[in-house]
């Protein structure tokens, strides 16, 4: 009968809807699981205080998931990863450095109020006894007189109320003092900035040094591990 046919059609529609709802729920659950896993990888809460072998490529990818909503509207991310050996580090702290530098680059691009998206390029490679991560942007760049202070606590180039001036200082402490690595900042005004993070493959026990140098139109600040001295030039 017509009534029976109509009831059968309604059941078919309901079954189709239920299957679609199940598919959506499964997809949502998988997405949440991925986000939670990336958050765990970022913070490494299971070994937050420990030094262990860690692949920085994995750390950068986890950090990008955490930072995605903050950077996706104003920047495109280009990744040029090489196969690198693991470094002996506190992964949670190292991921915090990646996040600080990425957010600094994204905020610099956003400050320009440009119509097009900016670009942040992330490169990784091994060099000598270090694994290196370069994070560069095509933002406004940093003047030489300010570049020499970027790792100082509470120093910021952002407008009042827009930054604490602690992100790069904390990053310096993590890379240089806690991991005996190097942190360098290069910039050409009007073309952008680059931060170079060098982490030793094997853990070192040395002191730290901060040095500044200017080479042509490109200014560089280096944070390294030799002595407790700090020098600033031009």
UniProtKB/TrEMBL annotation:
UniProt cross-references to Gene3D superfamilies, sorted A to Z: Histidine kinase-like ATPase, C-terminal domain
Entries under PANTHER family matching the protein: HISTIDINE KINASE, SENSOR HISTIDINE KINASE
GO function terms (MF aspect): transferase activity, transferring phosphorus-containing groups
Protein name, entry field: Histidine kinase domain-containing protein
PROSITE patterns, per database record: HIS_KIN
Domain spans labelled Histidine kinase: 30-203
Stretch list, region Disordered: 205-234
Biased composition (Polar residues): 213-228
């Amino acid at each position: 009968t017509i009534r029976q046919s109509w009831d059968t059609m309604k059941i078919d529609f309901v079954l189709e809807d239920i299957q679609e709802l199940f598919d959506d729920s499964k997809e949502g659950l998988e997405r949440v699981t991925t986000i939670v896993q990336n958050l765990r990888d970022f913070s490494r809460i299971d070994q937050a205080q420990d030094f262990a072998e860690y692949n920085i490529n994995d750390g950068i990818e986890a950090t990008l998931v955490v930072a995605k909503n903050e950077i996706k509207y104003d920047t495109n991310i280009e990744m040029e990863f090489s196969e690198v050996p693991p470094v002996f580090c506190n992964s949670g702290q190292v991921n915090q450095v990646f996040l600080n530098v990425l957010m600094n680059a994204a905020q610099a691009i956003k400050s320009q109020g440009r119509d097009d998206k900016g670009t942040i390029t992330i490169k990784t490679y091994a060099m000598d006894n270090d694994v290196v991560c370069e994070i560069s942007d095509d933002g406004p760049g940093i003047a030489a007189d300010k570049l020499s202070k970027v790792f100082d606590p509470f120093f910021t180039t952002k407008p009042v109320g827009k930054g604490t001036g602690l992100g790069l200082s904390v990053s310096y402490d993590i890379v240089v003092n806690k991991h005996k690595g190097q942190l360098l900042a290069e910039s050409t005004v009007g073309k952008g900035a680059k931060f170079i993070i060098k982490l030793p493959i094997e853990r070192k026990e040395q002191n730290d040094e901060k040095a500044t140098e200017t080479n042509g139109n490109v200014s560089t600040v280096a944070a390294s591990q030799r002595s407790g001295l700090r020098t600033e030039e031009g």
